[in-house]
Every structure is written in C-alpha cells, then in structure tokens.
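User: quick one, fold this
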Amino acid sequence: MDDIKTLSDVKNSDISEEIDEEEPESSSEYMLVSWKKALSYIPKPDREKMISGYDIKSLAKVFEDPDVMRTSAAFLKNGMNVCATAKKLYMHRNTLTYKLNSVKKLTGLDLRDFNDAVTFVTLYTLYLLK
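Assistant:
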C-alpha cells in the first residue's frame, strides 16, 4: 500500500507542471480544470491515441480561433441553451445557430448534442495538454 500514490502525491509530480494552476471562477470552469487534471494523468502516448481518430488540423483551427472558442465556451457554460447564450453574447439566436453550425462543419461535432459537446471539451483539453 505504501507504493500507491494519492492525488496529493501525484499533484507534486512532473505531470502537475503541465496543468495551469488557476482558480476557477465558476462551477463549469471548475469542471474543466478537474477534467484537465484527470486527463493529464493519462500518459502522453495514450492521449495521442485518443485524438488520433480526429482531423487535428481542423480542430486546431477551431481551438485557436478566439471568437469560435468564446462562442463555444459561452454556449457550454449556459447549459447548451441557445437563447441564454445569445442573450449573454449580445447576438441574435440565429447568428449563434450559424456559428454553432460552422463549428459542426469544421469539426463534425454538434455542440447542441451532449455527447458531441463532451467530445469537444475532451478534445480541446487534450489539445491544451499536448
């Protein structure tokens, strides 16, 4: 039992250096930080296998576009609610729908579908960890 590391022991390991140590402002940000920490414990070769089935170049374009990521993050923070997100971003709901459709076109992931949204967040987190 002495050779089993606890989370506090692992936190001090080399893996934790890859993780941003920012304090989350909301529960959704806390979940993202927790998800990032959890995924960081997966060895890098295994993380690379996880994203190998996706078009990395298309994903990188999306992940590096601040407007798309701001829109995506707001949509996910607002519980995948189009009306609430549009109001929060001061845009018409049709404009938001257009932007969500463009994310779907670029990534193949529809953020309005829960499973695709989880996949999007996971891929984004893995992208940040690479």
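User: anything notable?
Assistant: The chain has eight helices and no strands.
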